Amino acid sequence: MRKNVVAVAMCLTSATAWGQSQTLSGVVKDAAGRPIIGATVVEKGTNNGTATDNAGRFTLSSRASSPRLLISSIGFTSQEVTAGSGEISVSLAEATTSLGTVQVVGSRSQNRSVTDSPSPVDIIDLREVTTKTGQLDVNQLLQFVAPSFNSNRQTGSDGADHVDPASLRGLGPDQTLVLVNGKRQHQSALVNLFGSRGRGNTGTDLNVIPAASIERIEILRDGAAAQYGSDAIAGVINIVLKSSVDELTANVNYGAYDAKYRRDDQKFDGGNFNANLNYGIGLGQGGSFVNATLDFNQRQHTQRAAVPAPDGLARREYGDPKVSNVSAYLNSKFALSDRAHIYVFGGANKRRGDAYAWTRFADDDRNVPAIYPNGFDPVITSDIWDASAVVGVKTLLGTAGWELDLSNNFGSNRFEYGVENSLNATLGATSPTTFDAGGFQLQQDVVSLGLTRNYKTVLQGLNLAAGAEWRREWYSLFAGERASWDTFSVNPEAAPGSQGFPGFQSKDEIKAQRDNFGAYVDAELSITPQWLLAAALRFENYTDFGSTLNYKASTRYNLTEFLTLRGTYSTGFRAPSLAQINFNSTFTNFIGGEPVEVLLARNNSAVTQKLGIPSLKQETSNSANVGLTSRIGSSLSLTLDGYYIKVKDRVVLTSQFSSDDPVIGPDLEALRVGQAQFFANAADTRSLGLDVVLNHTATLGAGGRLNSTLAANFNELKIDRVQTSGRLTGREEEFFGPREQAFVKASAPPSKINLTFDYKVSKWGALLRFVRFDKVTLIDWNGDPMNYQKRITTDLTLSYSLSDHIQLAVGSTNLFNRYPTLFDPQLTETGGAWDPVQMGANGRFYFAKLQARF
């Protein structure tokens, strides 16, 4: 049997090796007849591809008799052609949106190209990124590709260990709106309480969407609340799902970290395995299709607890959590006629995680030696269920030219906590060691109606859009089992609840909902071929805090064929999330290594009302963006965008007030908690920054292509004002003190610079990337500054096409094993030798990727 298998394999190999081969050649130009340098030419269903040279020409070998070629370039509409016997000549039109395609974020015009946008938009081709880098999830992919995007994994941060918070331009995770195929994506039910970023914020969990299901990601780096509604203060991330057909893509990836700071002698840890499949089926005429993705990802714990505290009481377990993730996503379109179609997309994600909490040592009064004679390391587990579904119809109305888009969008995120390897000390030796700790759920349902029409005869073109949206949101918090939070008589003086994460109590339980109605108008007028004016106006009404009206004005002017100026000014808002309004919990925090019970009181609780803290209201913003774009031929492009963002009444998590406080202390003692904190509209912030993106494409060597990219974000965030109220009036330094302010300012480093060289020749490819993270300053538990010095990480990937259909890539991220500045673990937020900062804290990562495309 073995001989037969070998013989068959040899025959298949020989057939592939000696199959008839032909050389294809051609030229790719734009609509004006200019050569497009660096356009991608790929044989459909394979990894066999090349790129055009400085004259827009390409050559490609193929074994197929009549190969189909996919030709694409950022900013242009892709084309699929069948290669014949002669030279291939292709003219690519500038990318625009039309019935049946997803609009480029930032504009509702059907005739607006990416390069014509009056607002800065990044277009990230996920096919290119995922095959050349070591990152496997969407957050980490964007972290090292888009300088204005920031995300890092956290540890010792309860729920934030399982859901990575992410942000744009240094603002909060909840100040960036996420769309999928142009439709609002629901947020996570989680409120981030610890860690170096997103404290007090909710946000959207990007990692529920597998990278294998994504065609491209559009990042609008500009305030857009007047266009898209709440949360779009910093910008918009639009995830465009794949719509390819008759092509099967399969990926298997594995990587592991170089374990420098482990307590044992293990050389590698944090093994990360990912496997996925994507396939699309064409369904007759009219562009109907179904494209589906299955994805499995599992990563193991890392252990970075080898840096001891001066007194020797550092955490025994510290590092990334263990997480397994299973996703299924679908994107589809069904033509009803040549004027109308139905679209359906969405998916489901199941995540299971476990993260180490703080060590309870053997002599800790929170330990029961009869159960754990050597102390214990509690494990916080998570079961996260996420699902979304969008159904809609697009149609052209009569002969007037109006396009109608009607859709319904439902999404749900449910987060269930568990605690393992733990105990409730008030139960003594009879305590269980595993607990159900409760959790929370957030759901939304959105019905939206949009109308768009383009008038080509009004000056140089007028695009009008109008629409309305109704959204209902639900939030619930449910309690854990009684043993996870209550006090029992066996040892009533001990700390109650499951150690590591006390469960939510029955008095914490709540169900809340609200409705929102929004209506907008949007217009873009091309006064001349060079000059564009745009404006948007949006009204929204929330049942829990009232109405708001916001606007945006934009312009773009082409000074020359190669130089364009653009600018925007907008007002914006963000409604406080239902989770921020209704979250209530008593949890354990470690301050200088000592455990303290902390009450986080919901906004309308008896405690907050007694203190005179008002109900949460919306954040408001004013933002401006001024920039220029320059394209010299098709080989060199430059964008510079300066921005200003002022946010009033930011919702933040206040500093913690202790039980010896002269105002609040007696109330806390009655509740048997050591400290308390609250959500409040406590801060006004101001951000000033600059985004720079420089791209260059050149031919290098015989048939080789080198893409070089320099991308940078420079950002300064200042806190202009801290406001208090009620019985805490005049105590600004205590209400939202320097330590909490430092966390807000450290949401992004003052600068992040990315330099990438991407080279491909024949079957070989290489990517070299340098990322410079600027200094970040936090404040330790003693009130002293912790300066995390600037660092440069280096990534290297080498790839080789084993055949037309199979490609292998190997490489390393953080090649030189750089770590953040080390500090005393007793003084950090997390109990490790560093806080989670932008570059990550796991060191060098080795990986290998095998991709098959048929």
TrEMBL record:
Belongs to the TonB-dependent receptor family. Pfam families: CarbopepD_reg_2 (PF13715), Plug (PF07715), TonB_dep_Rec_b-barrel (PF00593). It is a multi-pass membrane protein. Keywords: Cell outer membrane, Membrane, Receptor, Signal, TonB box, Transmembrane, Transmembrane beta strand, Transport. Residues 347-815 form the TonB-dependent receptor-like beta-barrel domain. The lineage of its organism: Bacteria, Pseudomonadati, Bacteroidota, Cytophagia, Cytophagales. InterPro entries: Beta-barrel_TonB, Beta-barrel_TonB_sf, CarboxyPept-like_regulatory, Plug_dom, Plug_dom_sf, TonB-dep_rcpt-like. This is Iron complex outermembrane receptor protein. Its main location: membrane. One of its GO terms (cellular component) is cell outer membrane. Residues 1-19 form the signal peptide. SUPFAM superfamilies: Carboxypeptidase regulatory domain-like (SSF49464), Porins (SSF56935). It is found in: Cell outer membrane. Residues 114-236 form the TonB-dependent receptor plug domain. PROSITE patterns: TONB_DEPENDENT_REC_3. The keyword Metal-binding does not apply.
